[in-house]
Amino acid sequence: MTAAGITDITVKVISISTPTVETAVVATTTTTTTTTTTTTTSTSVIPQNTVTITTRTSSSTSTSTSTITSTSTVAVVSPAVSASDEHVLAKALVSSAGSLLCCVSLCFGVWRWCRVRAARNRQEAAAGAAAAATAAAADIPKTIGDAATEGSVSVYVVDPSVLGVADPSVESCSEGVFQSSDLVNIMTTGIAEHWFIKPSDITPDSKSILGSGGFGIVVKGMLHEATEVAIKIPTRFQSQEESQLANEMRLFRHIRHSNIVLFHGATLMRINGGSPCLSLVLEWVNGGNFGEYMQQLRSNGVFEADGQAFAHKILLDVARGMTYLHKLTPIILHLDLKPANILVERSVPPRGKITDFGLSRFARNSLPQHKVGTEKYMAPEVAQRKHYGPAADVFSFGRVIIWTITGKLCQELISSTSFKGLLQTLDEVALSCLEEEPHIRPNFVQVYARLTTITTTTTTTTTATSL
Questions:
Q1: Domains in the chain, start-ordered, CATH in brackets?
Q2: Rounded CA separation 293/461 (Å)
Q3: Which sites bind ATP (predicted)?
């Protein structure tokens, strides 16, 4: 290391053993004086196995004083060193420095490679997690909120047969219990199906009679001390009344629709100290039947204004409820559709609800062809005791429409070309429902669609007129 321009070089080597000539654990001071060009080399061993080698070169006469203070083991090389030994020593220093530089470079390379590899592994892991999350999201149905921002969503109904479940039906294995009108067995079924109401859960109000008829009376009551209900109590205990009441329970258990009176359950009631009888507990509708509602509209002189729109809304509700009944499996035929069996909830707009399923039946090919219903609203095939089906209810609904727009009802077909606007369209729907041949009449899906079209057309016409 005698290259010109280099005056001081300090090299630190870890864990290097250096041979020593003399060893002492003292503080040592060495002074060397010369009058000629002299090279002084001093070597000291530092604690912790660290060797510090300092080389100073001078080109003129000088006095060099070197002071080495140490409290550890110090190895001192004799100052009388030959030129060949100095060359060997310098060569050893250069070799050691090169080896150290190679080691440092190798360690740095390994450290750098480890960092790069770790970063690459993290990136690959993040990419894999993102791909897994995307695949999982593709298998999960999107919510309505997602559909609003990310596009359309495919939603479809799955046939229960794929899970080995039989075709769903309104009928159940307990149907024979209701056909026999066995009071005890009906109550047992109600307890098992959780629709039998305990006496402690219901309180009737005998002073609040909502209606009466050949079947018995309907009184207002309170269910669970918070819900107003209507209790239908038979007053006679003949086989016909029992059969109709049991038939209503049988059907009401499976019917859930906003335009059909809700069935809360059944309970035991006693009137005037008589025998206990099974009574229906139904939704209490705040308002009268459709006949009373229309009579009030006409008496108040408001039918020509808002009354027509309200009447149309109620007819639309009835068509919606009948569409539901005719879409069940098997189909439920009401067979006594008339204004008295349509309740009107007094709200704005009003809501129509179908009630009284005492004469209703499942539509079957083996259905006994009895004459059932109210004569003026009865379909010709029912009156003639021919085979009848869903078209019989459509005919009765046509009669209800005619009664709504005219306020009267006769056995013969009633229609008038003097109707305008909404009433004219309702009259056209009624005429299609009153076809003599059942197969020519529309079904309730078509009737409901036609009534809905009336709503859209009326709204468009009203808007155009106001503009």
A1: 155-283 (3.30.200.20), 287-465 (1.10.510.10)
A2: 27
A3: 232
* 220 appears as a binding residue in the annotation: no
- Which candidate, 299, 300, 363, 358, places its Cα nearest to that of 330? 363
pLDDT at 3: 43
17: Cβ contacts below 8 Å, ≥ 6 apart: 49
Query: For 260, which DSSP code?
Result: B
Local structure of 164: helix, strand or coil: coil
pLDDT per residue as tens digits for the range 368-398 = 577 888 999 999 999 988 889 999 999 999 9
Out of 65-79, 144-158, 337-351, least confident range? 65-79
User: What length is written for the chain?
Assistant: 467
In order of 170, 188, 269, 276, 437, the CA distances from 192 in angstroms are 17, 6, 20, 20, 44
Residues known to be catalytic: 336
How many whole angstroms separate alpha carbon 467 and alpha carbon 41?
112
Query: 């021919």: which residue's tokens?
Result: 386
Pairwise CA distance, residues 424 & 375, whole Å:
26
**Distance between CA atoms of 69 and 63, rounded to whole angstroms?**
20
Does a cis peptide bond (omega within 30 degrees of 0) precede residue 350? Answer: no
* C-alpha to C-alpha distance for 332 and 266, rounded to whole angstroms: 21
Contact 402, 415 (CB under 8 A): yes
